[in-house]
Amino acid sequence: MLKPGDGKRVVVGMSGGVDSSVAAAILVKEGFQVIGITMCFNLAESSGRRPSCCGREGIEDARRVAHKLGIRHYVLNMQKPLSDKVIKDFCQEYLRGRTPNPCVRCNQYLKFGLLLEKALSLGAGYLATGHYARVVKTRKGYCLAKAKDLSKDQSYFLYRLNQKQLKHVMFPLCGYTKEEVRALAKEFNLAVASKPGSQEICFLPDQKDYRSFLEKHIRSIKRGPVVDKQGNVLGEHRGIPFYTVGQRQGLGIARGYPAYITSIDHKGNKITLGSKDEACAREFLVERPHFITTWPKKKVALRVRIRYNHKEVPAQIAKHGERFKIKFSRPQFAITPGQSAVFYDRGNVLGGGIIDKVLR
Asked: Does the active-site annotation cover 202?
């Protein structure tokens, strides 16, 4: 890792938010030669309820911060890569009855893919971002670990980074809490000190209205049956992409007990409802597995998180053909195909994969 004050060049991915702005300010204060780059997706602005990153507002805020810090600032057009690598997959996964996590792909292909390549082409040794995570150098290579502020830790979204990427990545906020970062922003007199957090999915103008986005990008959405586990038809759904496993609201079907979506069959274009217990499972398969250092050669016991706001749970992980089989110590609610299952060993991220099939 670079030592503060050596004048080495670092590119900072600046979204215009408080986190990336403080990350840049910290590095400037420590004596690095900092260059700011903002990814532009050329998207419509948000509805006004929450600021959008990577749009006009984010670019202008990042530019003002860069001017305040006295660093160069550039804008990198990422509209086509976003469409090719993130939005296309986002739509295809929902069409298959799965629930994707576009932030994972954005980090893998855009922020720590193309943006990192751009940083290195500018002669920088590192790309720094405002993520709450930690890179640790060990004898086995580079490890990804949780940040100090566990309530803001973003290691889940970064599990697909590899050794080549982690070698050139810095997370200046890894040792700070969100409250401390806000305080630093005020100390640095940054205009974004009180700016609210941006929406999680940057290409959705309204975070809660992903269905309207899908309607504009998917033409083959068809209505179909909603059934119980015996196959009895209970009603009609609006289209597979509008639903997710574990969903309870917006079904329009009364069962006399709380009913949840237990599975989605995109080939049969049907949705199955059941009780909360029936929406729980212990075993599932993950596809496209990725491990940051070494791959396990035999069954191992780790802790697994099946979505960002899910608490890690003890599980056994074993090779299963080209996939991995995960078995929890106790049933978990709404194991959702398309989401990422991330493997932790204490505070370190070992890897993960995309949830493919739930075993019942």
From this structure: yes
